[in-house]
Design goal:
By secondary structure, this protein is α/β, with parallel strands linked by helices. It contains nine helices and eight strands. Strands 1-2-3-4-5-6-7-8 form an eight-stranded parallel beta sheet. Strand 1, helix 1 and strand 2 form a beta-alpha-beta unit. The radius of gyration is 17 Å and the shape is globular.
Length: about 260
Amino acid sequence: MHDLIDIGANLTHDSFDKDRDEVLQRAIDAGVRRQIVTGTTLEATRDAVALAHKHPGTIYATAGVHPHHAQELDDDTLGTLGELAQDPAIVAVGECGLDYFRNYSPREAQLAAYEKQLNLASEVQKPIFLHQRDAHDDFVSILKNRVDEIPGGVAHCFTGARDEMRACLDMGLYIGITGWICDERRGHDLQDAVRYLPLDRILLETDAPYLLPRDLKVKPDGRRNEPSVLPHILETVARYMNQPAQMVAEAATRNAEIVFRLPAI
């Protein structure tokens, strides 16, 4: 059994309200001993911090506002996020970035929220947890001028091709791989790109309850993804990287401990 860290799980999602403790136990039983719960709104960040306090050493959290909710990031919200980000349970600022695929918030609001959260990461000196979809050029042009001020970052749920991965690596980012790589319809670019991903930059995540791997032989009721699925993602990543799964697991866990400043166990 591998010792894994799921660096991106939305465990505050209401789909986990009825069995959250069981979900956590299934993850531990599967070798996923630690998880980082994603803050996507102010409310989700508060809930993530509370969950981390309930499970110290097992659950950590991020503090941020997803680009879908960029319009919600007013000065009061930003100030509260800044206070929350000081909590030791918070290991990164975000999930923040740009999403031009959905455009649930206007692009101007997304750009402003992205800049504000980069500023926050710089102020509190915590890494940045990044989202990007169909916005690569703007995402990179803004970040490359700020990245030296921030102690590391993660291209969360990376789905792009080799050239986009290289741009992220050149900025010093770690690359978070989800079950997208298990998708025979949409995952071809990522399947190719991970062949060029250095072991010292890989991170593993489920993005639960989203992105259930399509190639799971036995799918859960309701098709809800959960952190216990991470070993399946690991095996798929290792196959496309042409590396032993144990080597990939050890590298991903070590990388997560480095970028998020987690104690080694």
